[in-house]
Structures are given as structure tokens and as C-alpha cells.
Amino acid sequence: MSLDHILLGLLREPASGYDLKRLFDERIAHFWAAELSQIYPTLKRLEGRRWIRSRSAASMRGPRKRLYHLTPEGRRELVSWLSGPPRYGDERFSYLAQLFFMGELGDLNRTLRFLRGLREHFTAKLAALRSLERMWGDADPRYPDRLPDEDLHVHLALRKGLLSLEAHVSWCDESIARVAARAPDHGRGRRSRVVRKSDNRRLHE
Amino acid sequence: MSLDHILLGLLREPASGYDLKRLFDERIAHFWAAELSQIYPTLKRLEGRRWIRSRSAASMRGPRKRLYHLTPEGRRELVSWLSGPPRYGDERFSYLAQLFFMGELGDLNRTLRFLRGLREHFTAKLAALRSLERMWGDADPRYPDRLPDEDLHVHLALRKGLLSLEAHVSWCDESIARVAARAPDHGRGRRSRVVRKSDNRRLHE
DNA sequence: GCGTCCATGTAAACGGTTACATGATTGC
DNA sequence: GCAATCATGTAACCGTTTACATGGACGC
Fold first, then answer.
1. How close is the nearest chain B Cα to the Cα of A161, in Å?
2. Closest of B72, B76, B79, B19 to residue B43, by C-alpha
3. Chain A residues whose beta carbon lies within 8 Å of the beta carbon of residue B75
4. How many independent structural domains does chain A possess?
């Protein structure tokens, strides 16, 4: 149950459910996501286990909030999770499943559009991550080589996101080139279309 | 619902639930996984929707099996899924969450062991994918440049797995080097030993 | 006064995992 | 005869998503 432990990790500094959601979106989005509707009940469960405790507190803006903070038991639980072996969940990529079967359509131009869509998506995520890195770098003159050990770990996790996304984009480029070389109109514009014999091979009806 | 559509895609050739499980493990494992206990009820549901139909058939080895095959409606559904936009599910990586908070432990040697564990895991998966690629290449003299368009798509999906895993391993190497440079014993065994840079550079197993 | 953000939740459904159960056939 | 593999399922649970619901505080 990673969400539990991520919340414990984040709660080294007291925070409300709403705060935690913001932390997820700002700092953690590249390897985990959580909705408020999941965060709130989870916090209650963690409090039931005595891993966190809460108190009411004023907000700077808006109504009062419920501030959660870690207990010693919670800290012990966090450490035990961190000390354990790496947890791999099996990765599922719907878009690869689509690509895998896309030969069915018998339309390379469609594949090309699909791949360009992927590339756009990945470059956008990459840009977001890079700007996150830049913000961090600007705020801390020690970034990245002289960061304290603790922040080094955060940096490594971020690097994983960057390298992964760069690889995603490279793969898109490689794939687009490969498909474009075969596509009748080299994947450009909708004009200059040559009739191929493979036109018969389509599956739809 | 990707599993539904993956099953439709695989059922271009008639197959039983058990057959489909083997296909998942053999050809699809790098972007999707499914258990038999999920496959069987899903097949029933798909049959309820008239996207597939089944008949009983003899097996080469073992008891009789229930062979499923695609209906025209199922084929239409498959095509509509393939024609739609790429489906991104948000990716979650527990091991990155662990790394992110691992500064808590204040023990770089532990981080180092963790990263080496990751590297081992990824190289093993990479080796498996490479052997899958090799098997494919050996079986088809057209591989990879003169593959028919349909198989090209399968190849592209496989390439994504390869490039991704290579990036994962590179990231591990980079991270290990960075942490080892700070760790009290250079991250080598119990005796302190100097790290040569050539130690990191092997990616190929 | 109205919209936006702050803040906290509940309920139903969904997709997937784990554990359990059963039995046929084949090869040794 | 026994183990391994082939084959098909059910039940309980878990983590997550989607939709719904409510209301306070602040800025314009």
C-alpha cells in the first residue's frame, strides 16, 4: 500500500488532506497521483492505526482545516517501508496495446498521427518536469551537486522522470521516422496521396 | 477498459482463456499483464455483449477447451478503440516513492543497495525482452526493416520496451555513481575500495 | 452578490489481485 | 501411481476513479 506510506512521508511536516493533494500535484505527480476522495478516507484509516494524529487549525485563506502530523509509530512504519525491498507494480500502457494492434487498421497515416499525438503528450510532460527542475535549481544554489543527502534522493527520483520521458520522446521520433518512410504521403499533409494495394487489407467492415 | 480490447485484439485468431493467458505472458508482458481469474469472467462478459462467441473444441494436450472467436460486432468495437485517441493511464512507481523519501534513513549505503537492486531487476527484464526480440528476429528474415506493416506495429511496441528499460538502467548507473561518490565506503562491499569509472558503463548485462 | 478557491467528505462502480476449488489428460 | 500441465472457474478483498454533496472564506 504505497499511498499510505507516501502520506506518511509527506506528513513529516503537518498538513491537511487538501495540502497533501497539492503536494501530490506539485512534487510527486511524475511517479504517483491521488485524488482527494481517496486521500481523506486514507487519512482517517491511518489515524485509526495511530500512525498519524490530527488537530484543527486555522487556514491562511478559507475555512479551518484538519492538520495531520506523524506519530512515532507512524515514523517507525515509514522507516520499515523505506528499509524494505523495492516494490515493483507491473506497468500497464494502454497506448502501447493500441499500437500493438494498430496494424489492423491498415492505415499508416493513422499510425503516424497516433505517434505524433504521443510525442506531443510526452514532450508536454517533459517540459513540465524540466520547469519543475529549473524552479528547484533556481531556488537552491547547491543544486544539483552539493545538495544535502536528503534532497539528493528527491533529485534522483526527478532524474528518473526526465530520463524516462526523454527516452519516450526518442522512441516516438524513431518510430515516426520508421513509419513515415513507409507511409504513402510521408506522413505530411492530406494531399499527394498514392494508391497502394494495401488499401484492400483494411479491417473495418 | 483496455483488457477487453486487448482480448478482442488477440482473438483475431480463436483461442481459449488459457491460450490467452499464455499470449499475455509471452508477447504482451512488457506492456500489460492479466491473471486467469480476470480473463475468464471478462470473456464471459464480452460474450454477453456479443463481441465474441465460443464453442467447445478438443485440445492437443489436456481436456477440451472453450474456444472464443471474434464476431463482426467485436471487430467493429476493436476498430473503434484503435481509431480513438491514445489512452494514458497515470503511471505509478512505488520504488520511486521509496527513493523519494529515502533520505529519511540517512544511510547512503542503503540507498546504494536499493539502486543496485533496481538495476538488477531492470537488466533482467531487459535481457528477457532482448531474447524475445532475438527469437523474433531469428524466425523472420524480414526482421526488422522489411516486416509487413502489421508486424511493424508489434515491433514498435517492443522497441518502446527496450528503449525504456535501457533508459532505466542508464538512470540506475548515473544514480549509483552519484551516490557512491558520497557514500562513506564508496558503496563497495565492506572494505573501502576506489571505484573505477569503467565499472558503470556496462549496460549489456 | 457571485465566482473562485479552500476544505471535507460519501457512495457506487471499476479493474485487478489473491486465495481457493475442481477436475481432465499426459508423460514418466 | 503420481506429478505436471491443461483447463475453467468463484469469492473476497483492495486500491482507485467518478460522481455527488456540502459549505466557509475571500476578492471583486
1. 9
2. B19
3. 203
4. 2
The answer, as to whether pTM is greater than 0.85, is yes
Residue B103 and residue B181 in one domain = yes
CA A163 / C1′ D17 distance in Å: 29
3-state SS class at B15: strand
User: Could you report how far apart the first and last alpha carbons of chain B are, in Å?
Assistant: 36
Looking at the structure, tell me whether residues A74 and A101 fall in a common domain.
no
Provide the H-helix boundaries in chain B.
2-10, 17-23, 36-48, 72-83, 94-101, 108-139, 149-180
Long-range contacts made by residues B92-96, C-beta under 8 angstroms, separation at least 24? B92/A2, B92/A31, B92/A32, B92/A33, B92/A89, B93/A31, B93/A32, B93/A89, B93/A160, B94/A2, B94/A86, B94/A87, B94/A88, B94/A89, B95/A86, B95/A87, B95/A88, B96/A31, B96/A32, B96/A157, B96/A160
What is the band of A204 on the pLDDT scale with cuts at 50, 70, 90? very low
| Confidence category of residue A199, pLDDT binned at 50, 70, 90 | very low
Give me the CATH number covering residue B28.
1.10.10.10
In a domain, A120, yes or no: yes
Whether residue A160 sits in one domain with residue A73: no
Q: What's the pLDDT tens digit per position in B30-87?
A: 999 999 999 999 999 999 999 999 999 999 989 999 999 999 999 999 999 999 999 9
What pLDDT score was predicted for residue B184?
A: 79
Task: Enter the C-alpha cell of residue B62.
Answer: 489436456
Q: Which positions of strand D lie within 7 Å of protein CB atoms?
A: 5-11, 14-20, 23-27
Other C-beta atoms within 10 Å of A74: how many?
24
The tens digit of pLDDT for each residue in B104-134 reads 999 999 999 999 999 999 999 999 999 999 9
| Count of other CB atoms within 10 angstroms of residue A116 | 14
